[in-house]
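Figure 6 in text form: structure in, sequence out.
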């Protein structure tokens, strides 16, 4: 693997690392006991890469994980990044996110709109609603050299050193949470966080230059943890499957009852994974039917993300009128 890659424009073959999907509980416990566990909050934003190029016209640049440049869409963030006056040829893994007016919860939909809008429209929107923010994780390249194999804690310390040199409002480093893992799991649920990202402080990471973005490197020593929530919904219809699922149901559409009106409030769709569910929900005669669904996160509009059907509920067990939409999702 070459030690230097093109940072402007960013080499599209660069594949950034991602956390492993499941945190090994025994290993996490041992790391916590030994003081080697770094626990951070998982934000609900876009994974990104932040670069310093040394170029006069483009001294810093911001990219999506896929290598698409979004520098001009986030001018306030980029200006703060430029003000750090970092050496050239630095590439840092990062995450860009946008919070609502309360600042309590990230809004991935709003961020996606900003990233996909024209630079002019993105700028005007942020002037009215507030700028997106950028969290810097750890560097992969410093002064053109690959530093990804260095321990997480050393690379995180370098980011802290850079940020401590200037006042900034929109930039931040990884927040190191001090509670033990059990306490943090409860905090995630209580404060409606998306989850945690856990690091072995002494582990390195890796990146690839093979262009296989569908298969990013997931080095040992970095894991994510998300809670699973469960709730009951009314399945209203299905969408037929395709390919090998022809003749079966591919997904179902779900809703809950708005108690103010008694009407069904659409809550998006749920993909079907189990063969028995694909057969069951392909029968139009069963609708509407109550289903129990597991999910990782619920968007501000009430839709689910990373969801799956646990089971159908018998009318004797759960009635349709009992599937009530939580008040926080009521349209104002």
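Output sequence:
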């Amino acid at each position: 693997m070459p030690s230097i890659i093109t940072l402007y424009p960013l080499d599209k073959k660069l594949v950034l690392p991602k956390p492993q999907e499941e945190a090994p509980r025994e290993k996490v416990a041992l790391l916590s006991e030994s003081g080697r566990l770094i626990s951070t909050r998982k934000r609900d934003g876009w994974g990104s890469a932040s670069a310093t190029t040394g170029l006069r016209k483009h001294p810093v640049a911001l990219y999506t994980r896929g290598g698409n440049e979004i520098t001009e869409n986030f001018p306030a963030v980029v200006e703060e990044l430029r003000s750090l006056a970092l050496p050239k040829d630095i590439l840092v893994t990062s995450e860009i996110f946008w919070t609502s007016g309360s600042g309590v919860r990230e809004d991935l939909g709003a961020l996606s709109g900003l990233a996909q809008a024209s630079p002019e429209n993105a700028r005007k929107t942020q002037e009215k609603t507030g700028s997106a923010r950028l969290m810097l994780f750890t560097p992969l390249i410093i002064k053109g050299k690959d530093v990804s194999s260095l321990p997480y804690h050393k690379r995180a310390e370098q980011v802290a050193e850079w940020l401590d040199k200037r006042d900034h409002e929109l930039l931040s480093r990884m927040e190191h949470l001090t509670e033990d893992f059990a306490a943090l799991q409860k905090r995630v649920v209580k404060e409606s966080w998306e989850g945690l990202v856990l690091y072995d402080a002494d582990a390195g990471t890796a990146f690839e230059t093979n262009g296989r973005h569908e298969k990013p490197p997931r080095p040992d020593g970095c894991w994510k943890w998300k809670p699973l929530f469960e709730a009951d919904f009314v399945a209203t219809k299905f969408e037929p499957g395709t390919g090998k699922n022809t003749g079966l149901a591919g997904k179902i559409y779900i809703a809950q009852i708005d108690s103010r009106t008694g009407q069904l409030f659409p809550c998006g769709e749920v993909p079907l994974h189990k063969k028995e569910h694909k057969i069951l929900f392909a029968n139009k005669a069963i609708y509407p039917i109550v289903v129990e669904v597991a999910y990782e996160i619920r968007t501000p509009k009430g839709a689910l993300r990373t969801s799956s059907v646990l089971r159908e509920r018998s009318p004797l067990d759960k009635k349709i009128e009992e599937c009530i939409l939580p008040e926080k999702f009521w349209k104002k």
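Caption detail: The longest strand covers residues 229-240.
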